[in-house]
Amino acid sequence: MNYSNTTESKYNIYSIKFNYYGIDPLVMERLITKPLEEKLIELDSICELKSTCRFNESITTAWFYKTADTDSTYLKIRTITENLYNTLPNSVQKPQIINSNTEEKAVICISLNADKDYIEKYIKSKIESINGVTEVIISGTENKNISINFNNMLIANYHITPDQIAKTISIENSSNISAEKKSSSSKSSYFFNNRLNCEHELPQIKLLTEKSSINLNHIARITQSVQPKTETVLLNNIETSFINIKTSDSSNLINISTECHRLFQSKEIEKLRPIFIYDIGQKQKEIFLSVIRTLMITIIITGVIVFIFYHSLKFSLILSAVTITTIIWTLGFLSISGISINENLLSGISISIGLIADTSLVLYEIQNQTSSTINFHKKAIQTIPSILISTITTLIAIIPLLFISTIIPSVKNTALSILFMLIISTIISLCFLPSFLPSFCIQVEFINNQVSLFKTKFKQKTRQMFLKFLKIQKYIKSIFYLSALCTLLLFIILPKNIQPVKESDIFYFSIEFNPERKIDSVKNELSEYIKSVEQIPNVNFVKTDITRGNAEFEVIYSNTTENKIADLIREKSGLIKKAYIYIPKVTKKIKPVSIQIAVSGDDESKCRDIAKETASLINQNNLALQTTLNFKDEEIMYNYVPDKNKLSLINLYTADSAQQLRQNIFNPVVTKIIINNQETDVTLSSELNKDFDSLNKINIITDNSSIPLKDSGTITKSKIPSKIYRLNSRACAYFSIELDKKDFTKKYNSILNTLSQIKLNDGYKFVIPSLIIENQNAYKKLTAIIIFCIFCIYCFLVTKNENFKLSFIILLCIPSSLFLPLLLRFLTGSQINFGDTVGIILLSGIVINNSIYISEAPGKTVYGKISKRIKSILITSLTTIFSSLPMVFLSNSEFIKSLSFFMTTGVLNSIIVSLFLFSFFLKDFFTMY
Questions:
Q1: Is 499 exposed, middle or buried (0-12, 13-18, 19+ CB in 10 A)?
Q2: Phi-psi region of 671 (alpha: psi -120 to 50; beta: other; left: phi over 0)
Q3: Residue 277 above 70 pLDDT?
Q4: Where are the beta strands (DSSP E) in 6-118?
Q5: What is the pLDDT of residues 611-656, one digit of tens each?
Q6: Rounded distance, CA 395 to CA 296, Å?
Q7: pTM
Q8: What is the 8-class DSSP label of residue 43?
Q9: Do 18 and 58 meet the contact criterion of CB atoms below 8 Å apart?
Q10: Nearest alpha-carbon partner for 835 in 888, 776, 909, 908
């Protein structure tokens, strides 16, 4: 069987990424993003379109329903992208089409003692070749380069343009030139080695002037340096390089993790001292192995329990053989059905082990109570209806799980594994097991004697207990009804988790500085703060990604909880003076729900204003725990508007002045030379500072004259957004709100009401995340399906019992058995999460079986019926409890832990309900003794 992740998406996601260096977000939007969106929005099956424009970069992400043909969709996107690229300036980098959401966090992060160029050249392509990897992002230390910083005033005096300098250097370092000399009798070839051998040859390059020539070092300073930083990435306050690996939703993370570890263990890469900062695939592998371990423990525990109760070694072994056979057949049928294996599927199999023992135990009970094979088969046939009823009621209860994969990813695997386990085990037990059971006569004598004594004492104690309970039977009936009612109230009161939470040992937070703050300035201020975060107990790594005016943190921890890490990080906030620290609120038991709301409209600045006003209004009315604007203030930008008339006087085009301005400011690469067997960039730039006063000193140069930049046009200061957001081809601005799950529905509805009362101009609207709306609709659909399934169970019971009241009382065993797990959740202040939801659905079909077995047992008295079934009820309940219990303590998955917790406590509760509470209702239909 193939392995699959527990996270599934109902969308195919594609991100289109364009890079155009030196261009601001407004131009990126007009030139690239809008034309691309106009074509993409017309594609079939598109669900949502989001775009982000920032300096040098445009990213557009499209969500398509999976009903659309994947290959056809990709080809259409590629055609649209290539057609747009062919119309853009040559300086635009070739676009990337990525089969994932670029905003998602990396699944693997690795630090390396190497520069970016080396990683790009020798490692990146190897990682990209791994199946399932969609994007490899390299960040960190820049490779050293040779900087040629020319004196703008000096080259203006010689009438040498920056473009002439660039072309001369490129020619002097051109590839080997070949030539041929032909004669009437022969042909000779000549090769000229014109490559620069080292950086020391650069100063001697000759530049031609009007009258003579000069050396390059006469008008420029040549030094070794690094490219101007656009970001700095730190690991525990030390600057290093990182590889961030992203994958698609359908990727096999365990396989990708294994391949990455194999790659980085190779000799040539191992010397770079790679460190896996975090690895989601490795974590999934640990979870997967933990479920396999608990599955093996469950099989052993089940065999031990059966041996203790039935003191038959052969029956314990044969039951273990039935269990293993059922598991193998289940995996086979699932494989044929195209279902992949994951930890949720294995957890379903582990939970089923206790359920599939029911039929075998009932048949063995009958075998022990009969003296001949004929009588055994006759009684076994009489018991088949009750066995089928209990199996069918469990199967009916599982049906809702097949329809909620949009809410709980991969739960379909859990449901199908339980479904196949029940069906296959029932067939094996009914068709094959009876042929073997009569031969099981060999028992352990000592244990047999001890158990006989225990049986006698147990019957006496049970009879005495029933006699005492008979005196207070009215109160017992009241307790039964009250527990069912309290279960419904607890379910309504307890907060529900409506968003899937990705399990991770990484805590994310950010610090926002003034947009004009330079990277080195931010780095210096953060130095002491990062050291203090490193010293927090159980913190393994602190990764810091610093860009202009911003720092993003990833704190990797172990052996502690997220809320403790959040509280300790919050205590360190006093070390940061002039910045805004955004640390997500995390409580001990219940995480708040974070919702990102968009304001969509025609004008981006107007959307920002509306978002600010709305967030302020929500804060003033205390409708949210926290509100955050997801955009920065506008940044200062200098605009140069050339005067065409003045430029024409010196025979200069606008494009020429723009090119010279770029060469003065942006350090373009003009050539590459080999230094110590490594390719090194040679960059060109003015030695002037990159500030407003220095801009006025730049000269625009022609072959025979020059003009100061300030005289060739106007330079103005303006503010532009550092990042522009778009949603479904419209400008937008985002703000986030955090809501307490205890009163989520109330606060959420209040916010919706507040948004509806805000009057917006035509073309502007608020957009709630589709995930919230989809989950709410899915929960309504789930509730309707559960009610329908319970109604089907009731109809099925009425048909079998031909008694409405008895069927209703059996049905009430479901809420009564859920009282204990919900009460424990309430007392511990926990929420009902996805694992609990699945547990409630499964228990609805499981806990009812005990009541069915008792009511369908042979005999005319309640005590007689219980006596016939008490052993099998206790054993099947205990096997279910002990098959789930190991996963409560040993599993690394919160979903599986929650599911197992509900199964353990719910089945324990059902023993009390069926043997003591439900039994006294049977007195109304049968005699007690």
A1: middle
A2: beta
A3: yes
A4: 11-19, 46-54, 57-65, 96-98, 108-112
A5: 999 999 998 888 888 888 888 777 777 788 888 888 787 778 887 8
A6: 25
A7: 0.72
A8: S
A9: yes
A10: 888
